Amino acid sequence: MTHRVGIWIDHRKATIVVLTADGETLTTIESQVEKHAERGGDSPMKGSYEARQIPADDSRQRALTGDLNHYYDAVIAALPGDGGVLLFGPGEAKGEIHKRIAKTKPSISILAVETEDKMTDKQIIAKVRGHFGVAAGRRT
User: Fold this and answer.
1) Which regions of 58-107 does DSSP assign to beta strands (E)?
2) pTM for the whole thing?
3) By residue range, what is the domain housing residue 86?
């Protein structure tokens, strides 16, 4: 069976919705990435920084990229093996994971990449259902 999946993602959290015959399954993966790490050391107003106290910007960027790659791998591991995926979210993460999925799991096809702001879980489910044309089941 080909799966229908929607992923709302930013650098802090991913919400994965997999539509099934019985409804949907919702998985949330939290990132442990600290986007804007603060530099340690003295204040520039009180004195100069010592060169050895401050991590270089390129090493901080490499650490951030490595942490994001682990996060994206965890999201990809939670996906079914085949099917179509709708990617959406507020920032750059949707484009970054799109490239990573294309490289690591070519059996998954990305159907659309859309920009969306913060959404609740119910809004995410409704968007995925609407994209795939699946009506919400009646609850009794």
Assistant:
1) 83-89
2) 0.77
3) 4-34+54-132
Q: Biggest alpha carbon distance in the chain?
A: 67
Contact 101, 5 (CB under 8 A): no
Taking the CA atoms of residue 108, residue 93, residue 103 and residue 59 in that order, the dihedral angle to the nearest 10 degrees is: -160
Q: What is the pLDDT of residues 54-112, one digit of tens each?
A: 555 676 777 777 778 899 999 999 998 888 999 999 989 999 999 999 999 988 999 99
- Could you tell me if residue 39 is inside a domain? no
Distance CA(38)–CA(42), nearest Å, equals 12
Structural domains of the chain, count:
1
| CB-based contact 121:41 (threshold 8 Å) | no
